[in-house]
Amino acid sequence: MAEVRDRRGHLTLDTDVLVVGGGAAGVAAAFTAARAGARVLLLEKYGFCGGAAVAGLSGTVCGLYAATEGAPKPPEQVVFGFADRFIDVMKAKGGITEPQRYGNTYTLTHDPLVWREAGDHFLADGELVAEINVQQKVDALVNSVEIDTRDAQIAAAMGTDGD
Predict the structure, then answer these.
(1) What is the CATH number of the domain that holds 144?
(2) pTM of the full predicted structure?
(3) Helix 82-92 to helix 24-35 angle, to the nearest 10 degrees?
(4) What pLDDT digit, counting tens, does each position of 121-146 carry?
């Protein structure tokens, strides 16, 4: 049986925080860590941030409101913080609805392209970008992770274009 080896080069990255994935959680983690003063590197497999919310696999923002049994009650928001800021940007851009009843809870419907613009607002081109240090690499797949606890070195990545 032939042995197959990965002969691609390795790249050493110098960063305080590595975020793998630029979906909702990744954007929030990158922005929040950067606001705290960390140098952040965000790796995203698509050519843009937003994950499934932008790639067309989801059109809703879920999990912000409490679920209730029985008769419908007004929405009770239970998640705050970065989510509020993100939704405020999407509202300002006209890309998100008010809460809509969905089963036992509420959800928000969003325009995927506006989601992408909101992500860019926080990481690439908004008024806060000068205050934070987030470097993004899109078209990047994490293909292995190496952990060296002596130097706190973690991760290897490769772009889909080979770099």
Answers:
(1) 3.50.50
(2) 0.79
(3) 110
(4) 888 776 666 667 788 887 777 776 66
| 60 is a domain residue | yes
Express as a percent the part of the chain with pLDDT over 70: 78
Give the DSSP per-residue string, the chain: ---------------SEEEE--SHHHHHHHHHHHHTT--EEEEESSSSS-HHHHHTS--EE-SSB----SS-----B---THHHHHHHHHHHTT-BPPPEEETTEEEEEB-HHHHHHHHHIIIIISTTGGG--EEEEESEEEEEEEEETTTTEEEEEEETT--
Q: Given a cut of 90, is residue 106 above it in pLDDT?
A: yes
Rounded Cα distance between 89 and 63, Å, is 18
Is 146 within a domain?
yes
- Count how many domains the chain has: 1
What is the spatial distance between Cα 134 and Cα 40, in angstroms, rounded to a whole number? 5
Up-side HSE of residue 141: CA atoms within 13 Å toward CB?
4
CB atoms within 10 A of CB 128: 13
Boundaries of domain holding 48: 17-159
Query: Are the CB atoms for 137 and 163 separated by under 8 Å?
Result: no
The answer to whether residue 32 sits within a structural domain is yes
Give domain status of residue 7, yes or no.
no
